[in-house]
Amino acid sequence: MESFIQWFMSTIGQHISPEVSVFLVSMLPLIEERGGLILAKLVGLPLWKAVFICVVGNIIPIPFILFFIKSVLHWMAEHHLSKVAVWLEEKARKNKPRIDKYGFWGLTLFVGIPLPGTGAWTGSLVAAVFDMDLKKASISILIGVFLAAVIMTLFSYGLIGSLVG
Asked: Distance between CA atoms of 101 and 79, rounded to whole angstroms?
C-alpha cells in the first residue's frame, strides 16, 4: 500500500490538494480509508480533518456498489470481462460464510477490521451479490467504516504507541 501511496503522490497527487488526494485514495477499492489515513498522516493533515475526509470518501461508493454491482457484473459477463466478474463473485462467495456466521455484526466486523481484502467495497459486494437487506447492510457497513476509521486512526497517527509507550 505504501508504494501505491508514494506513486499516487508523485504523479496525481502533485496536481491536486492533499485533501483531494486523501479523499480520492479513500474511495479506491482495496485501499479505502486505510490508505487514505496513511496518506493523510504523510501529508500532515490534522487528525480531525483526515478522519472526516477518509470516512466520507469511503462511504460515497457504498450505495453505488449496493445498488449497481449485480448489473455491472452481468454486463461484464456479457462483454468479454467474464473472468473479472467471476473473480469478484468468487471473492464475495469466499467471504460470505464469515459474514453469515455473525449476521449484521459479522458484516460490521468484516468491514471494520482493517485486514487485506476486507472493507466497505468487499462488504458491499458481498451484501449485494447475496441479496442482503439493503437497510441492514448499509447500517452495518457504515458502522464498519467508522470502526475502521477508529482503528486506523489509532495506528496511523501513533495514538496506540503514545498510549502504550
From this structure: 35
For residue 69, what are the contacts with CB-CB under 8 A and spacing of at least 6? 88, 124, 125, 128, 129
Q: Is the pLDDT of residue 162 over 80?
A: no
Each residue of 16-29: pLDDT tens digit?
999 999 999 999 99
| CA–CA–CA angle 97, 101, 105 (5° rounding) | 115
Do the beta carbons of residue 110 and residue 23 sit within 8 Å? Answer: no
Burial (CB count <10 Å: 0-12, 13-18, 19+), residue 28:
middle
Give residues with Cβ within 8 angstroms of 11, minimum separation 6.
none
